[in-house]
Known about the structure:
- The complex is a heterodimer of chains A (211) and B (207).
- With 211 residues, chain A is mainly α.
- Helices cover 66% and strands 0% of the residues of chain A.
- Chain A has ten helices and no strands.
- In chain A, helix 4 packs across helix 6 and helix 8 (129-149) packs across helix 9.
- Chain A is elongated and about 85 Å long.
- Chain B is mostly helical and 207 residues long.
- Helix content of chain B is 65%, strand content 0%.
- Chain B is built from nine helices and no strands.
- The radius of gyration of chain B is 19 Å and the shape is globular.
- The termini of chain B are far apart.
- Classes of the chains: A mainly alpha (211), B mainly alpha (207).
Amino acid sequence: MSDKEMNExxxxxFRSEDxxxxxxAIVDSFLALPEEYxxxxxxxxxxxxxxxxxxxxxxxxxxTLKEKLPFGRWLEAVRQKAKLTREDxxxxxxxxxxxxxxxxxGDLAPQSLPGNELGPLVxxxxxxxxxxxxxxxxxxxxxxxxxxxxVAGRLTPGKEARKTADAMKLALDTYLADTVEIGADAESxxxxxxxxxxxxxxxxxxxxxxx
Amino acid sequence: xxxVVEHLNDKKFVRxxxxxxxxxxxxxxxxxxxxxxxxxxxxxxxxxxDAEEVADDALLKVHKAIATFDPSRRAKLTTxxxxxxxxxxxxxxxKVKSREGVNAEPSGEKSGDFVGGPRKKPKEPTTDSVGxxxxxxxxxxxxxxxxxRAYDTLSEKEKDILRIRDVMSYEEIAKIEGTTANAVSTRxxxxxxxxxxxxxxxxxxxx
Lengths: 211, 207
């Protein structure tokens, strides 16, 4: 047998289901090779991965909600359940992570966001407009209650204080979502917002989120 | 990125990953995705879009199975991830072969079904299944088991150089090891000769 033939057999074995397991030495050597793949392509891969995870989390559009939550808190809960970061969501919809944070925590009122920012979010999270209506109504009610309580701002600077403040805000939002009354005037505010989101989704033929 | 890759095997980082930390998984993904794509292009002669798709499948399996990774077992986290990627590559290769063979897609499989829905997952990896493979799926691809038996008679170092050379050039290996391409080539030749002798012996025994 020639070296070439032996090499061929070896190659075939490595590519078959009979392939021996990789070892630390093999993988470490390979990892020591300089970067070879464009970063831009990897970012696009990661975005597709994020879309895929969220699509797997909700194979059907979300029409009913298990809990009463503000829009942003619902997004946050779904994102965390899918083990994704704010950076991940931000990269897919093309905004800064801080912006996603403001939406999630309710510092930015969702009903005041433009359709071309809300639309991609709704599509990514596979949220049906009917369920969205409920989330937005809760957002408005919670936002008002929070403003009245005067706790929307952060308590004190510093990472730990910020964590505590964030946790308190989440607890408060969850509590308020369950207890506050939704004012009649909130309905019209939500309708205006839903009209722009509908326009966005129709343009993209995302019928499943509309019908 | 080199620093990030080394950091992936830190105990603390592995603990965070196993606990389902989203930030940690994102770090792992961004650090290893390019490496896995390159690995698949080199080992399975895939084009870049296919390699990206298979790497993505593999990383989805890693995402789902990460809690089952057992750091007390033989391999590092990065090796465990690459083993899953390797198996995903072999799986892909087998599907392509079978498509070419029967000139049709295997039942239930659709190519291009990438974003927007779950796809068929042939094997769910766990620490136990990774690297072992599904016996029931083994077919003609392991047609020469004498080669595998002969390979198993080699020392770990001999096996490693044969495998590393399969993915990297002499020059690349030499650069990483801080030696010369000639020295690597000699080491490879010795291991190959030993394998050849063991293989011929195995074949002799078969007769």
